Amino acid sequence: MFKYTKKVLSHLNMQKPNDGDTPPESPESPEPSLSAYLNKNLDMLRGIFSISSDIVIRELAFGQQPQVHAALIYVDGLVDKATINLSIIKPLMYDSRIISPEKAHKENIDHVKTTLLSVGDVKQTSLINKLVDDCMSGDTIMLIDGHDEALAISAKAWENRGVQEPETENVVRGPREGFSETLRTNTSLIRRKIKNPDLIFETMKIGNRTKTDVCIAYLQGVVNPALVNEIKSRLKRIDTDAILESGYIEQYIEDAPYSIFPTIANSEKPDVVAANLLDGRAAIMIDGTPFVLTVPALFIESFQASEDYYSRSFLSSIIRMIRYISYMLTILTPATYFAILTYHPELLPTPLLFTLMASEEGLPFPLFLELILMVIIFDILREAGVRLPRPIGQAISIVGALVIGEAAVAAGIVSDFTVIVIAATAVSSFVNPAQTDSASILRYILLIVSAVMGGFGIIIGLICVLIHLATLRSFGTPYLSPLAPFVAQDQKDVFIRAPLWSMTTRPANIGAQDSKNQASGLKPRPPKEENNI
To answer: DSSP state, 305?
Structure first.
């Protein structure tokens, strides 16, 4: 059992009289419950909460003489004190309709719940573990003397960042709002995009100590029920003390933990998550982080952006092709440069070859070591730019790269062509943030195999990567879909972005129940001559 249960059982065992004939407690004993005595319940909860200074226990008495004794328990900093004072304490102590203690039966707590408390969400329970979890989540617990049940009153309020523009997914055209660290704010942002009662949010707690709220979002009637069941099954298998960010969940439920390619997508934008839900995917939202996971994830998603669907298809298709080219450049440029100069110089025109050889002449390091050092320096500058505050980080990443590159060339440590190659590699790596990790690792791997086998090694490396991609799955969906297996109807949104009116079906391999997302024949047409304005 959890820590709270152990404390409660320990407290209850201390209160039992020593009796040698009493059989030991069964390991399957029921969860501890409240008693009908307020003092006993308070002692039990004080033992659970120990001496934590942020736990507030407010005892009060209300009603006519003789008064009814009660207590409020909440966590300072997680509740709205104005709500507690105006909607809980004030009605109890000043409302003339207060019940009298002569009616001491179970309906009294129902009367308090339905008549006196002017709060929207009030739950009733007798399980101590449930009350402790609710209190730690920001609810206010109300105990009443003479009742073995308590009320969990929703008065949550804490400081949050609010809805701001996401920093990781900037757009020129499109919504500027991004998720925040508050789960309920994030669910409301998605609800604003999809105003449909079929949009379902299911919440569970994961983390034996953190008790983090994890929410599964899906569109009923569109999503494949097997996908939702698989997500729930994987989440329930998680048995850990802490879930602090969506990356924790991702590493526990991904299909290929040893692959360098992410098989679970994430986004900070509500419109991206809403579009994925409408395609038949499911989202996993974690309280405390603005990054929402979506499954299943496909490799081609890394080259798609929400802005592609807000602009006309011609420009969007060109930009998408540029993303594919940029990814190939960032993983292949250093390896290809080394392979051509070292193994295949005959592929270059003679004047260019002489120029490149002249630039490498007299340098103290071999070309392979030169490229490796420059790639490492680039990764260092990029990491420094990310970790430092934004104004300083930009200066480090831009000015630092220029100064170091120019100084290295002037000092005769590296050639100017090597700096150009690394600069092209660096700029290309920023085009596809979703594949930055895989691109960084592949860059080193392909450079090493090119040093061993030249261009032949690069081809072998790319074939191995392609085979690996073809074997990957994301919650049962082929990672290279719709390329492998090939789905003709889904090619409209792979290398190009076809007009929206032509994409009448959802992705086939996602397994959506409703495969059609819009009517056919929506192509715009000019008005007939008799209707011309």
So the answer is: -
